[in-house]
Amino acid sequence: MEFKLEAHRIVSISLGKIYNSRVQRGGIKLHKNLLVSLVLRSARQVYLSDPCPGLYLAGPAGIPVQQQQQSGDLAAVPPAGWGEPPPLSARAAWPETEPQPQTERPAVSDPVVPVSGTGDALQAGEAEAAWGRVERPRVALAGGGEGLDVFPEGPRAARRPCGCPPAAAAAGEEHRPPLPPAGCPRKRGAARVGGGGHAGCPAPGSTPLKKPRRNSSEEQPQPDGVEETGEEEMETGNVANLISIFGSSFSGLLRKSPGGGREEKEAEENNPEATEPGQICCDKPVLRDMNPWNTAIVAF
Amino acid sequence: MGEDTDTRKINHSFLRDHSYVTEADIISTVEFNHTGELLATGDKGGRVVIFQREPESKNAPHIQGEYDVYSTFQSHEPEFDYLKSLEIEEKINKIKWLPQQNAAHSLLSTNDKTIKLWKITERDKRPEGYNLKDEEGKLKDLSTVTSLQVPVLKPMDLMVEVSPRRIFANGHTYHINSISVNSDCETYMSADDLRINLWHLAITDRSFNIVDIKPANMEDLTEVITASEFHPHHCNLFVYSSSKGSLRLCDMRAAALCDKHSKLFEEPEDPSNRSFFSEIISSVSDVKFSHSGRYMLTRDYLTVKVWDLNMEARPIETYQVHDYLRSKLCSLYESDCIFDKFECSWNGSDSVIMTGAYNNFFRMFDRNTKRDVTLEASRESSKPRAVLKPRRVCVGGKRRRDDISVDSLDFTKKILHTAWHPAENIIAIAATNNLYIFQDKVNSDMH
Known about the structure:
Chain B: One of its GO terms (molecular function) is protein phosphatase regulator activity. Chain B: Keywords: Repeat, WD repeat. The complex is a heterodimer. By secondary structure, chain A is mainly alpha-helical. Helix content of chain A is about 40%, strand content about 0%. Chain A contains 12 helices and no strands. Chain A is globular. Chain A starts with a helix and ends with a helix. The relative contact order of chain A is 0.21. Chain B is mainly β. Chain B is built from 3 helices and 32 strands. Chain B has helices at about 280, 330-335, 440-445; strands spanning about 5-10, 25-30, 40-45, 45-55, 65-75, 80, 85-90, 95, 105-110, 115-130, 150-170, 180, 185-190, 195-200, 205-210, 225-230, 235-240, 245-250, 265, 285-290, 295-300, 305-310, 315-320, 345, 350-355, 360-365, 370-375, 395, 405, 415-420, 425-430, 435-440. The interface of A and B includes residues 7 and 235 of A.
């Protein structure tokens, strides 16, 4: 449990850093953000792998945690990040090239700009989605099949810790944690984050902070645990999108993002009242519903 | 080391005794020139201050070799990249001196995006006795000119003139972290997070990319370049360090694009030390070739390591700089201190290495005797010609009187930039906005 809390704390701090780096003078520093994302990933792994029944939330969908946990289709559940994964229409969001079982990566945060796990060129919107994917815990599929269309909020917390030994996960060992019996959420076949490998359980995340995202039309990119492509890519897992953002330009998503970013920024400028610190306005309904924590990430 | 040392602290003229420090005054780089006569510092405000060592005077032998301000100029200004909507900081990231080839001195200074070649010249004579102009430069009334005179050069107060001779711009997409002048004195390289470019000192509109680690898909990015340096003698060799803690030695004769290294220096990670922050603390913040060219010195967050060019598997020496911080990595992460990039230096004979730490401490390690010392650069503890007292950080257990406990270390006082005179035991320590220059008294007595 302590590990989980510690990991969660580190995750929050890391997200804060990334968010703040947006407004830093001189532009986003690639090196620092790369390191922060590595920490983020490690913390997430630990968080997901810590077999602590921990914090459970009852989702709005009313699906009891247990159910979620036992959902056999957790394989389809995207590896959880932390916090509450926004509801996803994973399937739709996910690039079609991805094999079914791998649709654990559900959604893209922004339906307009699908986040592709596989390395589609990331644009700002994708970046946002990527962030969402990285950060957002994914909701375990209640009982759904491979393609997750909707992720009920509740179960997030319910995500069962998978059987992955936390230490191993934390140590980043290259191993494939055995598929958890009923609980382990999405384990993506090839997806291993940070070489550590475990799909990890969807993280209940920052319970108090997170308001589950109920927008079912929304897709959230999966937290990164699951990498789209191979072992190698796992290394950069959730960072990937982040890096893409940086890679494309240091002005970040806001500029490049077709739609998402720019609108976001404009919305931000135009609707200051709707913006709280950490919360980004976006004219996309999806984003609006996000809880502040997630939104911050997405915005970034 | 750590025996008798003279101390002399030099303040920039614009410093005051307040605890509040103007950010622009924070020193961001320190570099001696090849003879040690000049010392250049760059700061966050884009200024460069050059100090010159006063020639030793027989009349006042105790003041021999002090450094005084020689020249101050604004090297870089803040810029705005309109295309990317990014402000480009004017902070001077690195200064490197060119070998002196005539009466003028030249140095390269760089911020995140642009490298500039500055020429520093002295003027100590001026012509007097013009026929058409009077002393103030006004045209004379020709009717008053009755004879011709030959203008003569008369001595004047020394004036140091600095002019930008070359501006190497638009070579880098990412932030430049290091520059290094080649031993051929014709080329130099500049490295950013993902690429290294080779420039000719006389050509500003073109540069060659010699290393490119940018992946085709940025999502695959796992490491960035953190520092790079040319070999001091072999103009074809250079090394660059990565955020993963590895060093790559490249030979420019092998290929035009040196993505493929000739040698990879990497130490396997100790699994027992693994933590959330293992990757961060293994990132190399500085790499320096020894003067001999046989060894390399690297600095990561907690250690300095000496590598032999002939052995890639592991460093030949590892020194703990402040291992007591290992248990505090989380709070250092929170405060961003874990991202501090400390530099390291060799002394002239490659027998002692030096690096900075927190609380205005800096550390020296004698490679031969294996002794090390911690010294402090502060106004309180150093009066001119006072002897620096070794400090100690206690980590629990018995605490001696003057020890500092780990918890009372001031992490806002960090010594990131240090430089060692190329031949003598004179060191320059940058502590936030103050520059300290320490001399080894023993050494100076020998003159």
